[in-house]
Every structure is written in structure tokens, then in C-alpha cells.
Amino acid sequence: MIKRFCAWAPDDRARALVYALTLLGAALRLYQLGHFSLWDGEIFTLFISSKPLPLLLPALRDFGAHPPLWFLITRAFNAFGWNEWMLRAPAAFAGILAVPAMYIAGKRAVNSSVGLLAALFIAVAPIAVLYSQVGRMYSIILPFTALIVYAMTRALQTRAWRWWFALACLSALIAYAQYLSLLAVGSAYLTAGLILLAQTWRRTQPFRVGTFVREFFRHTARLWASFAAFFILLAPLLPLMQKNFFQRQLEREATTAFTPITVNADFLRALFLDLAGGEWLLGLTGLIIVAGLALSLRKRDFRPTLLAVVWFGLVFLVVAVIHPRRFPSRYVLHLVPIYLLLTAHGVYLLGAWLSKFSARANAAQLARALVGVVAAVLVMLMLAELGDMYRGSQEVSRGERSTALLLNGNWRELAQYLDAQVKPGDMLVYGGDGSQRPPRFIAPYVSADYQTRAHTLNPPSDAPSNVWWVGVGLKADQVVNPTDTVVAPLQAFGDTQLVRATRPIKMQTMPLPRAWSEWETQMPASGLAFADLTTNANAPALRADYSAAVEASMIGPTVPVQPGQLFRLSARVRGVSEGFYDFSPALRMQFFDAQNRFIPNAGAQTLLPTDAADWQLLLLDGAAPPNAATGRPVIVWSDYSFLYAPRVELQDLQWQMERIAK
After folding, report:
1. Among 4, 67, 244, 463, which one is most buried in terms of CB atoms within 10 A?
2. In this structure, are 646 and 603 located in the same domain?
3. Cα angle: 528, vertex 533, 534; to 5 degrees
4. Do 499 and 519 belong together in one domain?
5. What is the pLDDT of residues 272-288, one digit of tens each?
6. Is 229 helix (H, G, I), strand (E, B) or coil?
7. If you ran DSSP here, which 8-state letter would residue 488 be given?
8. Before 206, cis peptide (omega within 30)?
9. Secondary structure of the chain: what % helix, strand, coil (to 5)?
10. Are residues 520 and 600 in the same domain?
11. Global pTM?
12. Which pLDDT tens digit goes with each residue over 507-540?
């Protein structure tokens, strides 16, 4: 069998090996693809891709920070319903395509051996496999980057228009998949430009400024035309990018409490650990890349060094200039193919260099053997790292600056537990690190019956009920109870904790102004008009009509509260606009301490399914935070309602507080 394979033509052998490596990459990416529950970013993908097609772009503009390509692809995969496997399938298939893409990129840039090594490494690379099992846009960056390198190389080698146009199209596609991949586009065009600059320099000796400038622009005319074509293709994306990336994402990042990142040893170590896959892999691949660059420079081949300096240097320059608060490796996943191409090139050159020290005649066979040994060691180390991922204990990014991002988020398991345990009359209180996250993340998994059962408006008051405290990073000392309560031990579901507190719960209805004019309002002079509605219920009811994208709030009466005292705000709403974490109108409780200082609350809203008359029940359940002395209800009207539902009706507004015995 082996002899027959060796008798094949070199191209046939290479083609067969690429097929085999692609199957290996597919097996690693499809294994346990739907095993773990969705994690935070995947639930956002599901939220956006489930929108009706006419609302998908507006939803990204108003609630997201991403371009639309990935959400359109995911929407096609989930057109007839979703599950974990189907939501992640596009990422897995994109990761599989990266294997042959890396082969043709390495083959065209150097030779078939480097292409095969690069395809092998990306087939088993931990970070490549990891993101191929995540329902986000990150894995599609891998084949796009490899194809950009391929198109750039073909364009430089052939100077054919079609390859310059292919470079423009691939650059536009990667930008439509992830905004930060514009770094890959800039790196590709800068690399090509510097290579053409060097060629022009050699052609115009002895040097004359006028001759050099004329020859440079003549020699790079097709590059400039390619870049112009890319910009034309990118133009439709620019308004969306300005709104949801520059205006929202970057401004939001600038206000976070994280320390600005600089290009220092900690940043470099975290980034390269992710690119390599582990401590041993980082040390070994680092040595191989450095050796490969040194051997290339010895042969006066400056292209690998130029590739490394431009692609990595541009990322370092951006970080050094803007000092982002967060910069995990998934933001610059386009560096993975470059890192692995440099590793493959280094392995190939090392094998050829070491074979020269052998006195044996078959130096070529010895070189192949040495390359095989080094490649086998790297592959075994990579496969060992994958074991942690399949067990759910591998972090997606060691460079993440917020909560550790694990594949095993356990939102499905948490939802199933709550669905089985929560009874009518129970209350859910969301706290910990980001109280709005759990209700959003368990929503895809819980039943409609659970949503109604967990938010019964009139719970029984003659028997003890459960107060379920749920939160990311929730600690036992954050569970505050105003009366005698039986508190069960804390349970962990991934990075989310749950505590059950049991006591009799008696709720009392608090008075609210019936007419909207009796509320304290904060609203613009125009753009939003309120009108009272007449209903049979003895509760506030009103209609809001938007004529412009404006924001307003209605503030209710202030009452004394005790820490841990339960509250519930509820209203029937028609025309509610749903964001990822919030709604418009939104129900909120504001709390203040004894010195009248504002205290962030521990409440989170839930929107129940639509009834036959197109009404939905919007609820806010929670507990007064520690040190709270007073509280008041607030209704917030956001500007995005103008686009999604400019007429909103709200009725049966109720405010309930737990009755605490004096």
C-alpha cells in the first residue's frame, strides 16, 4: 500500500494527502459539535439570526457590533429551527475549508511541502478547532485569510488582473464577516506594496527620484486599482460600521473599568499562547519560526520576515495607539494562518538545513524524515491540548479580560434544572456579575410553561415559596434576606451560581399614579407623545406614539425598602421592542441608600410570549440590593422603538413589594 502510494505522481500524492487532512480536520471539528450548551456570544448569534430578514440589519445596527455576513449565513442554516449542532455547523464547515485553503496558500507561497505542513497544522491547531466549534464568525476568518494570502501571492507572481480583483473580493468578504479583519486587509495590501516597492528599487538602479516614482506608480497600478475595488465593495458596509462599531462598540469599550492594554510581555504572552495552543507548543513553534526566519534571511529571502513584521506589527501598532480595554485573540484570528504558515516554513527549512550535516547520500530522504519527526511532535502536542477542549475545561481565550469564556457555559443545564424545580409562587432574583445575562441566556432552553409558571402574578401566600438567586459569579454573601429564611447550599452551573432561599412570601400592591401626567417625566419637547387609555382595570394604562428617535423616562413614587425585599413590576404591552438585554418600554427599579446615593439593582426583565390579542406580559423581578433605603419604579422609553414599533400600548401596570413584618 505504501509502495503503491509512493509510486504516484507528486501532485497526486499531495492531492490525496490534502483530502486526508481535510477529513482529519472535519472529524476534529464535528466531534461533540452539539455537546455543550450555547455560550454568551452564540446566544447573541441566535438572537440576531432569528430576526425576520428585513429587521436583521436594523437589529445589528441598534444592538450589535458586528457586520452582517455571518448572521445571514447562520440564518440560512437555522431557517427551519435551531439546535446547538446546526448553530455551530457553519463555523465547523468554515474551519474545515481552512485546511485546503492553507495548502494552496503554502504551496503557492513556497512549495507543496510547506503547503501540506500548513494544512496539517491548521487541521489540528487547538485555537482553529476550538473556534470551529463556536457559533460565531471567528472561524470563517481562517479560510478567508489563507485565501487572501493565496490571491496576494498569485497577483504578485502573475500580475494578472483577475488575481488583483480576487484579492479585492476576498478582502471585502472578510470585512463583511468581522470589522477587525480590516487589519488582515491592510496587512495584505501593505505586504504586496512593500514587495512591489522593493522590486521597483532593484529595477531603477542607479537611483533617480523621478524615475523611481514614475516606475513605482506604474508597477503598482494594479494594486491601487485592486484597493479601489475593495473600497467600492466595502462602501455599503460603512454606514453600519460607523453606527454599531465606531459609535457604539468603541465608545462602550472606552467606558469600561478595565485597565487599558499596552504591548507588553503579558499581552504578548497571552496572544502567542492562544496562537500556539499551549506552553510547550509556544516554546517549540517559537524556536522553529525564529530559526526559519534566520535561515530565510541567510538565503536573502526577505518575504517570510516581511510577512511576520507586517501582519503582527500592524496589530501591535493598533494596540499601542488605541490602548483597548479588552483584546482577546479572537479579535485577531487572522494571525493564526500566518503563524502556522511561518511554523510550516520553519519546519521545512530546518529539515533541509539539518540534512546537510549528514554524510549519507540520501540527504533528501533524511530531510523528509526530520520534517516528519518535528511535525509529529507538534501534532501530538496539539492533540493533547484538544483533549481539554472536548472535556469543556479549555478557555477560549487566555487574553480575555472579563469573565473567563468557557465552551461549557452550562446554560442548558441551568435552564433544565430551573424548568424542573421552579413552582408557581416562586420568585427569581438575578444578581452576580451582570444580572441581565442569565434570563437572556436560559431563554432559548426553557419552556413557555416555565416562563408563565416562574412569573405568576398572584403567588400563594399561605406556604413557603422559593426565592431562586441566579447570577454569574454569584457569592453566598450576596444573597440578602430581610426575614428568617432557609438558605440551601450554593450550586454551580459552569460560571453561573444558583442559591435557593425558602420563606413565606406575601406581596402587597403599591399605589401608582393612574394618569401619565402625574408621573415625574424626563422627555424631549417633541418626538414622543403620551395619551392615557381607558380600561376596566384600576391600573395605569397609556399609549406612546413616536415621531422621532428619542428617549424618555417616567419616574414613580419613592418608598422605603429593606435590603433583600422582593419586588415585582409588571405590565401588559403591545408593540414592545426587544433588544438583546433590554426592552422598550423597559421596567426598572431605582434604589438609593440612606444618603440618597444611587445603588445598582439586582433585577432583570422577562418578556412572556404573545397572546391571541398580540399583548405580551413584561415583568421585572428582583430584590432590593444591600444598603438600599428607598426605591422607586421607572419606565424607560428607548429611541429604537421609533424604528421597530412607533406606537406602544401599555396597560395593567402593577408594582408589588414583599410585605415585611415589623
Report:
1. 67
2. yes
3. 170
4. no
5. 988 998 889 999 999 99
6. helix
7. P
8. yes
9. 55, 15, 30
10. yes
11. 0.89
12. 899 999 888 888 998 888 788 999 988 777 677 8
